Structures are given as structure tokens and as C-alpha cells.
Amino acid sequence: MQSHVYNLTQSFARLGHDVLVVTKPQKATRTREKNGDVDVVRIPFLRLKKTMTLQYVGAAAAYLTWLVHTWKPDIVHIHSFWPELLATRHLHRSVRIVHTAHESSFLIMAEQPRYHRRLRFILSKIDGLIGPSNELIEVACAFGVPAERSLFLPNGVDEEKFSPAVAGLIRQRHGLSPSTQVVLCPRRLVPKNGVNFLLGAVPEILRVHPDTVFVIVGEGPEKEALEKQSAELEIRDRIIFAGGISNDEINRYYADADLVILPSLREATSISALEAMSSAKPIVASDVGGLPYLVENEVTGLLVPAADSAALARAINELLGSAERRELMGRVARAKVLRELTWDHIARRTLEFYTRILNTQEPAF
Asked: Percent of the chain scored above 90 by pLDDT?
């Protein structure tokens, strides 16, 4: 979400628009700063236990009220569902509010009846909804968002940073030979990202392609369990848990991969998939959420059923067995990015949606 907001707003600024980003404070940061071409305001609040959410909502609501009545923005665009949408609900008659539903937590809440009243309450005062997967839009529409005020719009990618021209780093950093095949899995280590199912596929992959190393980039609460699983499967020496890789270096990890794996159980239009595609890498991904929009089966990669280690193993073995096929898929993926998935392209489509919402006769649903 942070990457999305940063890149989208930088594109807005390049296109000549005035943009202000309002967010929570972070340690060692000023309450107001310049981030690239965009002004950023961090709303301060007291960090008292058990009241932090309430404090933040109150502080955000007060600041945004002042902002709307002094700066008079055309659109307030909210990127986080909870509690940010609650902090803007009272502004619906003063400014048009657009929400991008990024979060899988929104889908999880929608599955639980105890949250349904809250979802309807919060969504009832927005004027337009953008979803990076059709699943997110369908769920939002089930809670009252009119389909005509919604838009499927994927995330974007920096096509210059994530490029096949970038020098690789994995083999150098981890002491791998040039002949070793590298399978990269850039996933936060949480249950919904399905990394355990990739580990379950590794023994079969190594049986067919023994000189393969699996590099898992990301941190998260599942790390200890995944390390234990890899030890039990006797594959620990073929797994590199690389941890979190900085934004300055992650493009060089994609550059050195032969194949990128996204075994998610839930996913919007994954930024990791976009980064892999822009780096001209083929992808094996779960057939869920927004991934089928990006990964065209048999064209830019292979789609497999979610939570299916055997299917993952078959698909990975298939692509590891053909360098020519991987190269072709990577070229097609890169071409798709340049054609329709750069941030400037996504920014222009977002601005078109703003115009459509501003031209509607009645604010809010």
C-alpha cells in the first residue's frame, strides 16, 4: 500500500496536479516533509495504550475537516480501510471520497457476519471505489457500493527500476554458481501468502532439478514454522530465507531469478507479480484474486490451484526445464507492463475515474 501511494502520487505530481499525502507519524520523521514531488503530513497523536485507534481517528478527522475547508481538494482518496475510512465519513457532503480497497483483511471481515454492519456503515459514505482485483469489487458491491461507481484498476510498477537491464545480486550475495537455477518467492511470511505450500513442493522439484535453490524474501510471523517445515522435509540446505530486502536492492533479486513464485491463498494485483513481470521474469502463481489478470496462463507464466503443492511442483518443473520458454514468457510479461501497467498509465486511469465521480449528480451512495 505504501509503495502504491508513493508511486501513484509521484505520477500525479508529474502530470501537474497538487497532491498532499496525510498519514500516521513514524519514528525519526517530521510531521511535515517533502517526499519526492509530494508534500506529506503526519498526524501526531498521543500513543496511550488501548486508545490509540480512537485518538488517531479523532486527530485525523479534525485535520481532514480543516484541510477540506481550507485547501478545498477535489477528491479525498483513502487507501486504508480501517480506521481511515471512519475518519472521513463525516466529510461526505463536503468533498467527494474515493477508496481503494487494497487489503485482504477487508475480505476476511466480509466472511464474518459480525463485521457486516460495520462494513455497510463505513462504505455507505464513499463516492467511488477502486479495487485491484474483481473479487474486492464484488465484495464491496455486496455491501452497497454501486457497480457503476466502481473500477477495477491494477497496481502499477516502476518500469525503469524493475528492468531486465539491472545487474543481479542473489548469486553474488549468497555464493551460488552461475549454473544454479534460482527460484525466487518474494512473500511476507504470513498464512495468506501460502509459502508453506511452496516448501511442500520443493522435494519433488529437487528430484527433477537437483541444482535448484529457493530464495524466500520477506519477514513475518510464519518464519519459524517455515524453517521447521524445511528442516522436517530435509530441504533446509536448498532454502535461503533472505529476510527483508531493502527497496534499493529488491530489483536486483528479481534480476537474478530464473523463476518467480507467488503461492498466495488471497491476492489483489500483486506488486511482487508486477515487479517480476517488469523484470522480464516468468511467474508461477495461484489462480486467485487479481493474479489471473497479470499472469496469463501459458503466456506470461503458469497458474495453479491455490494450496496445491503437487500442482506447484509440476508447474515449476515444467518451466525450469525450458530456458527458451522462460525467456519468451518474460519478454511478453515485460511488454504487457510497458503497454498498460506503468505508474503513469495507472495514474491517468485513476484521474479519469476521479472525473467520472466528480461529474456524478449526487454525492455518496
From this structure: 78
